[in-house]
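Milestone M4 deliverable, item 7.
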Amino acid sequence: MLKRLVLVAALLSVSGIAAAAKWQVQITNVTPGQTFTPILTAVHYGSSGVPQVGAAPSAALATLAEGGATGPLGEEILAARPHGTTIATIDGLLGPGQTAQTYVRGRPGQRLTLAAMLIPTNDTFVAIGSVFLPIHGEKTVHALAYDAGSEPNSQNCADMPGPRCGGQPDSPMSPDDEGFIHVSNGFHDLGTEDGAGNEILTPAHYTWNNPVAIVTIRRVYSAD
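Output delivered:
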């Protein structure tokens, strides 16, 4: 009988069936002048494909990177990984030096993906992709800023949403887009005005150096 119980436990472990658990997730914005939009969280098996550096951005990723909307990307991850995937959003804006905290539920062997837009930017987003949830203790990840490659980096307020600029959140694809996801290299000196009265933001206040966020994932034990 004992051998049978040991065998059943081993089979459950191999098949990935394990007790549900809870993790605390903290994300700290370490940029001097950028704000994070609401943060998408996804707990899933396998790779989420976010960020898929070198690949063309999906429409859902472009929507998040250009306007901060988390819904389409969450639906895309869920459609690709329907088994055991949970999607949630940390609401509100996260300013420089601020920390947001949430709790996620999952099972050992699952992974965490986070993504949010940086504002004011054209199509830059912060992300960690498919990081294994720690079985014990905690894990710290330095999150980079990525350029979705879906919009030219004009740094023009007319092209950037959010409280600082109030510009348009989306733009059609153009020949000036990079066309692929890559590690962002920040703002550049493009002047201060576009000739039509629209402000162009300067690197002095709004650029960054990678990483742009510190993410801590901590296994917690509680009755709820």
